[in-house]
Design a protein that fits this description.
four-stranded antiparallel β-sheet; 12 strands; five-stranded mixed β-sheet; Immunoglobulin-like; mainly beta; about 0% helix; single chain
Amino acid sequence: MNFFQTPNKTHYSIAGPATASTLRVAEITTSSVILRWEPVRGKNRNLCSHMVLVHQMLMKCALYASGALKYQVVYRENGTTELPLMVEVTAPEAEVTRLDAGTWHRFKVFSVGIKDRRSEEGSEEIRLQTSKLK
């Protein structure tokens, strides 16, 4: 999945968008949380590295999309080994519902671009506890 350019040949491939950043909590209740982050925007860009192989230049580049078309919020209860759950949204905000009161959860956001290419790293993980029942 790279872009290769040799004297007679060119290959393209598209990588995922940049990573969502500034993940923060907007609201916490006993059974839900609202998360927000900075939208992933930008222009198409090439990231290149150069290598010389047997007197030929091989240029390796990844073409990054212009931004996120949607986001995937991946989460799970802290301390479990179950597969994470996911909420998919198009705006840089998500409400995650059906959480248990007073439990700790871990959240991470991935940006998704064209051809459903997902950012490699995802946002920084945040951990939070839902409000306890009174």
